[in-house]
Amino acid sequence: MDAAILDAIASPRRREILRLVWNEEQTAGAIHRAMPDVTFGAVSLQLRSLVQSGLLEARAEQRNRFYKARREALGPVAEMLERMWDDALWKLKLAAELEQTRRGPAPRKRRGRKRKS
Amino acid sequence: MDAAILDAIASPRRREILRLVWNEEQTAGAIHRAMPDVTFGAVSLQLRSLVQSGLLEARAEQRNRFYKARREALGPVAEMLERMWDDALWKLKLAAELEQTRRGPAPRKRRGRKRKS
DNA sequence: CCATTGATTGAGTTTAAACTAAAATATCAG
DNA sequence: CTGATATTTTAGTTTAAACTCAATCAATGG
């Protein structure tokens, strides 16, 4: 309802999530798998922030947590997003943007040992 | 054109500016006078960023610089903004938000001296 | 119970955004 | 030229966003 919405959709990452769960619910894991350039933790944090600002709803089922967009909460913004996603131009721009927008902590120091695997 | 638009409108400050110059051009000074809680410099920087992302156009006339929104550049976003501004609910939210969103450097230390060059 | 899988949480790091204050630039007036 | 007015620019500061890594929690299956 408030303008936290605009903040939410300003982030390419959150927009990507929003799109993934726009038409059908997805588990946190599935969402993470769709964006392998960040950790599961990072995704979880964004999911939390989206839920907190009312843009997603979460449903727990067994080990999984399903997330889904609350389109009603987006008001005029929902329409705008859909139009953006339908627009081929925007699509290209977005791809380029995600590539470039990676700021965060910058991959540096190696510290944690034992990544195991 | 790109999604810098979403970034631009995510900021309450930039949204405020955008609205001020939506229907008629305004000088930088007038814009600043409309938001006395920040310095002229801060306003000027935002104006610059808005021009750079193509959302405003600037015109110089004598000592003054007139700014005006480039609505065409906003695409689907323009419509959304207008609807937001027409919506009484949003109006209230925004007021509250501007009050609260003041982050920036927090007024503190005194330092800078002698710019010299 | 123990290991595994799915997800959240917490602590710490890096970076960029949004400011401020002061200096610089530009235009005009006398 | 000097000074005033309008605006931009530069440099420095604070804060929050977006991450990472590791620890933890929860449910399930042997």
Helix-strand blueprint:
The structure is a homodimer of 117-residue chains.
Chain A (H helix, E strand, L loop, with lengths): L3 H7 L1 H9 L5 E2 H6 L6 H13 L3 E6 L2 E6 L6 H11 L1 H14 L16
Antiparallel strand pairs in A: 1-3, 2-3
Chain B binds a DNA duplex (30 and 30 nucleotides) through helix 3 and helix 4.
List descriptors.
homodimer; 117 residues; mainly alpha; Arc Repressor Mutant, subunit A; 3-stranded antiparallel sheet; 6 helices; 3 strands; globular; disordered C terminus; DNA-binding
Describe this structure in words.
Two copies of one chain form a homodimer. Chain A is mainly alpha-helical and 117 residues long. Chain A has one domain (4-99): Arc Repressor Mutant, subunit A (Orthogonal Bundle). Helix content of chain A is 51%, strand content 12%. Chain A contains six helices and three strands; from the N terminus they run ααβααββαα. Chain A has helices spanning 4-10, 12-20, 28-33, 40-52, 76-86, 88-101; strands spanning 26-27, 56-61, 64-69. In chain A, strands 1-3-2 form a three-stranded antiparallel sheet. Chain A is globular, with a radius of gyration of 15 Å. The A-B interface holds A 1-3, 6-7, 9-10, 12, 15, 76-77, 79-80, 83-84, 89-90, 93-94, 97 and B 1-3, 6-7, 9-10, 12, 15, 76-77, 79-80, 83-84, 89-90, 93-94, 97. Chain B binds a DNA duplex (30 and 30 nucleotides) through residues 11, 13, 27-29, 32, 38-48, 62-65, 102-117.
